[in-house]
Amino acid sequence: MGLSDIGNLVCLPFEEIEPGQPTNVHDLFLQEAINVLRVSQRNWLPLIVKETGVDQYKVVANTFVYAAISRAGLEEAWCIVVDDSNETAEACSVLAQDGLPRINLSTASRKQIATALDYLLKQPGTLLKGVNLSSATSRIESAPRKYWQTFEPITKLKCKITKGKLKELKKVFYLEPEPIPEIITDPVLLDTFTAAELKKMAGKRGFKRYSKLSKANLIKRLSENKKPEPLPEVVTDPALLDTFTVTELKKIAKKRGITGYSKLKKADLIKRLSETD
């Protein structure tokens, strides 16, 4: 077979077809399907397969039908041949309801979030019992999801989804985060940082008189889309120096020709660097 067979309905020897993902359909339905196939001797609902080699195929979708054919003992199976792209495999699997759809939480719409949460909440024995659908949807939608590296931030949204319940969300959601921008101005994203972290950002962006600001005022200042003031060539402000790491402070000390800095602790480095020449 070749490209010309893609999309065609073909009858293949069953021994040439590898199984795909195992089906999770209850044996009640499977046994009835086996009985039907033994009478009809053909699968009116075709397998969706891709070619993996010469006279070799693998099931992409309709895994339930494959399991029934296997146990019914049919020697041939009707199949539709598709290309081997991941996009096609995912589309076929979703349309055949072979497994749960996977939703990118980084970019999901409000409707997608609500629908997925509603599904999870209605599952028997769900870990999300007690979670309010409307509240959880709103809080997750408005959070800076596109930057999340893990699902941990959800536990801080006050929507009754604790760390132990995150594995339930992972059944349908996954993350493809964007890199956090070097200069953050998004108030929602800024709100996820502590006041101490915000002060370090303010220091590195050259803001002045920020050390006593509240978290709300720090967010307000940092979210202003203004060009930050350049750092002074020689930094002597202790509050600004405190925003640097020990390694960065040692590099500054070296550039300024300060001796004996290599074994100094951060507090001592700041003290030395804040002394004006």
Automatic annotation (TrEMBL):
Organism (species): Adonisia turfae CCMR0082
Residue stretches making up the Rho termination factor-like N-terminal domain: 189-229, 240-277
InterPro entries: Rho-like_N, Rho_N_sf, SAP_dom_sf
Pfam families linked to this entry: Rho_N (PF07498)
Swiss-Prot/TrEMBL GO biological process terms: DNA-templated transcription termination
Lineage: Bacteria, Bacillati, Cyanobacteriota, Adonisia, Adonisia turfae
Coiled-coil positions: none
Protein name: Transcription termination factor rho family protein
